[in-house]
Amino acid sequence: MKKIKFTDLYKLIPEKKKIFSKINSLVKNSKFIGGEEVENFEKNFSKFVKAKYCISLGNGTDAIEIALKSLNLKKNSEVIVPVNTWISTAEAVITNNLKLVFCDINLDDYSISMEDLKKKINKKTSAIIVVHLYGNPSNIRQILKIANKKKIKVVEDCAQAHGTKFKNKHVGTFGNLGTFSFFPGKNLGGFGDGGAIVTNSKSLYLICKRLRNHGALKKYDHKFSGRNSRLDTINAAILDIKLKSYSKVIKKRNELANEYFKNLKNTKKIQLFRLNKSNTHSFHQFVIRCSYRNELKKFLEKNQIQTLIHYPYMLNELKFFKNKNKFKNSYNLGKKILSLPISEEHSIDQIKHISKKINFFYNNRD
Ligand SMILES: Cc1ncc(COP(=O)(O)O)c(C=O)c1O
């Protein structure tokens, strides 16, 4: 079998003719910033997740930073963040002059641990950033129950969870605001950086809209000092085309995930996701927890199968966050996890082949 790349971004582009001709016409008409492409995408993305408002942005990191800023939280109050996530989630807390508090995760679906969350909440807690990591929804209803009781705000980081649903409702629409990334490697990825915030609150929508555009809603209407964080017109047009067929992406990723479950469920030394069937998973990553992780990774590489690690360290292990807490579930997790290829360009045969190699590795190891 030919080399199996983790993702092949070029192969992932649907409707290439349509996309390339759209780019051509935008370039010919010098449409680069704002305009109806951006407004259309915002309208269609908010319709897709069933939120009232969408603000498109330059990237998913800005989305979390701006979402948090719009909540006007008390300076130095505490914001709880799961310890296994991309660094942006934590950076948004620091850049807003808030105190970062890490929380453990659970090992079934890698979402925030309810047990540890309850321990981390105190009088100084002003917000929780819930991360729907790998496309798996966190138990957002339970989190909201606790948060609402204590008047704690909730931001949902859905950078990896476009189309993920808790029960029948899209993630990103439960908390005060939901944030998304359209980085090229994401399930819904653009041709460059991109991001968005969704919310059902008109006042938060207007603040975020101003924050992304120098404090202004229109030209020269600055009400405070904001920043420049815009989704480029070309990128918005591409994302809008990709969004139209996005349900096919989720369907394909679910088919591939089911194939892994079928082939690896009896493999000793591997732990698969344990997921709640009443939710919709978008399978941004298919992560296994395994013994001899580095050896398995090397073995797969030798067999022309590319894998990645999301992430090789937990955020509390990064020295500059100065965290002294120990975490039961996520301790050393970065040394045990491995992300297997799961992109819509992969075939069922490729997943069968990868699973066969993994089973061969473990059958011949002990
Ligand atoms: C969980 C999570 N949050 C935030 C981000 C930040 O998104 P961006 O790269 O678009 O800034 C990412 C992207 O990698 C992510 O995976």
Strand and helix layout:
Layout (H helix, E strand, L loop, with lengths): L15 H13 L7 H14 L3 E5 L2 H11 L7 E5 L4 H9 L3 E5 L10 H7 L4 E7 L8 H10 L3 E5 L7 E2 L2 E2 L6 E5 L13 E5 L2 H10 L21 H12 L1 H19 L5 E2 L14 E5 L2 H10 L34 E4 L7 H16 L3
Parallel strand pairs: 2-3, 2-4, 4-5, 5-8
Antiparallel strand pairs: 1-9, 6-7, 8-9, 10-11, 11-12
Helix pairs in contact: 1-8, 2-8, 3-4, 3-7, 9-11
This protein binds pyridoxal-5'-phosphate.
Describe this structure in words.
- The chain has 366 residues and is of the alpha/beta class.
- It folds into 2 domains: 16-244, 3-Layer(aba) Sandwich (Aspartate Aminotransferase, domain 2); 246-363, Aspartate Aminotransferase, domain 1 (Alpha-Beta Complex).
- It is built from 11 helices and 12 strands.
- The strands form 3 sheets. A 7-stranded mixed β-sheet has the order 1-9-8-5-4-2-3, with helices on both faces. The chain has a 3-stranded antiparallel β-sheet with strand order 10-11-12, with no helix packed on it.
- α3 (60-70) packs parallel to α4.
- The longest helix is centred in the last third of the chain and has 19 residues, at 246-264.
- The two termini are 26 Å apart.
- The site of pyridoxal-5'-phosphate has 15 residues, from α3 and α4.
